[in-house]
Amino acid sequence: MRRTSALWEVFVLRFEEAMERYRKRRLTAEEAGELLGLSGRHFRRLLVRYEDEGVVGLRDRRLGKVSPRRAPAAELRRMQMLYQERYRDFTVKHFHEQLVKRHHYKLSYTVTRLALQSAGLVAPHKRRGGTHRKRRERRPLPGMLLFQDGSSHRWIGALDHDLDLIVTLDDATGAIYSAFLIEEEGTMSSFRGLCETIAAHGLFRSFYTDRGSHYFHTPKAKGPVDKSRLTQIGRALSQLGINHIPSYSPEARGRMERVFGTIQNRLPPELRLAEIATVEAANRYLTQVFVPDYNARFAVPAAEQGSAFIPYAGRPLADILCVQESRQVGRDNCVLWKGLSLQIPPQRHRHHYVKASVRVHEYPDGLLAIFDGPSCLARFTADGKPIDVPRAALTPLGGPGLMDLWTMLRVAHNPTGPATTAADI
Asked: Are residues 151 and 288 in the same domain?
């Protein structure tokens, strides 16, 4: 209060001094007003009021009056009740978006934030400090560089444990190409993200990941990776001609961490609001609702027109984006795989495969196959039972595409089951 009184007294003294100079024609109205931080017109208006009312006429007549632009109190109360009853775990920005989208809300984000803070429902943000950082420039075209990473979090509140969210993201636009929840991140989850991305968009140039053991062999903890020893993911990327880049700098990891921070703030509340309690329902929500909304809200235009994606042509992706290991056939024409005995059926071109080297494929959904070079000899369920499929499905080179191959396998294994989609792969 003392400070306000002191400032008011200073303003009155400065006004009277400027008024005296103006009357003696030492200053123009514009120059006198500039000294007081006013326009010349408002200075002349205050002169008239000062002559009529004295010092009282100099006071701001807006003080003590309600602004005509003030937000309606009833609307603010409605907003605060909605926040307390349904949106308590939403960020203010996300909450404001939901209000506009679902509740015909017209007030601005700033008004909403300040009203929530004044009511004590949210805390003001702390100012960001620290050293100056320079952001790494994005790639100019989509498909030049893609990120993939996983984040462990309690995504579904109804479950009593954390899940891993696997996200495949484009560097040029920040758009999410694949996102799904899984019990634990690993080789198969990476294959699934790659498969969904390439099937929808095509081949890309570079793939940036952390140095997790399913991505790279790292002889020494936190040391450089050994690119001469390829993991299953490294082998698949090499076959596809995609450059695999290990993460050594914090810049790209920071971008991915910011993405996960945004998703952690938004996805769990949305799943709670939609009353989703299973992983399968959450993955449908991610594909159908969350990812399209996220890309519409946060993806940015690429710096240049065009795309670095190229259409994929070749053997089915399913037989590249899978675990591949060599095995020697036993005397009974069986191959041992993780405790299972996989029987090779009679072949037209060869009497037997005793002691021959073959290649076992394990796919992300658990299905198995035995290959001799490019030829598929047999396919099996996850528990080792043979799948009776058409001969075309056993010759992938020049055969059906990714979706057709997997549709044939699904139908052969479960004729009455649901139709296969990209999410099933």
From this structure: yes
Tokens 């300040």 correspond to 114
Range of the domain at 80: 73-118
Same domain, 35 and 111: no
In a domain, 32, yes or no: yes
- Whether residue 368 sits in one domain with residue 231: no
Name the DSSP letter for residue 289: I
Measured from the Cβ of residue 18, the count of other Cβ atoms closer than 10 Å reads: 23
Contacts of residue 256, Cβ cutoff 8 Å, sequence gap at least 6: 147, 149, 167, 169
At a CB cut-off of 8 Å and minimum separation 6, what does 25 contact?
none
| Torsion sign (Cα): 325, 328, 334, 339 | negative
- Total-model pTM: 0.72
> How far is residue 198 from each of residues 243, 360, 374, measured CA to CA in Å?
14, 23, 21
The conformational region for residue 104 under phi > 0 = left, psi -120 to 50 = alpha, else beta, is left
Kindly state the tokens that stand for 344: 């090779």
134 found inside a domain? no
pLDDT on residue 130: 61
Q: Is residue 312 in some structural domain?
A: no
Backbone conformation region of residue 326, classed left if phi is above 0, alpha if psi is from -120 to 50, else beta: beta
Residue 126 lies in a domain: no
Give CA separation, 391 vs 103, 304, 347, 350, 416, in Å. 56, 46, 12, 16, 21
pLDDT in tens, 406-420: 454 444 445 444 443
Structure confidence by residue, pLDDT tens digits, 316-351 = 899 999 999 999 999 999 999 999 999 999 988 888
What integer is the mean pLDDT of 209-229?
Answer: 89
DSSP 357: E
Asked if 376 and 235 sit in the same domain, the reply is no
Residue 159, Ramachandran bin (φ over 0: left; ψ between -120 and 50: alpha; else beta): beta
Burial 269-298 (b: 16+ CB within 10 A, else e): bbbbeeebeebeebbebbbeebbeebeeee
Task: Characterize 165-174 residue by residue with b for buried, 16 or more Cβ atoms within 10 angstroms of its Cβ, and e for exposed.
Answer: bbbbbbbbbb
Number of other CB atoms surrounding residue 415 within 10 Å: 7
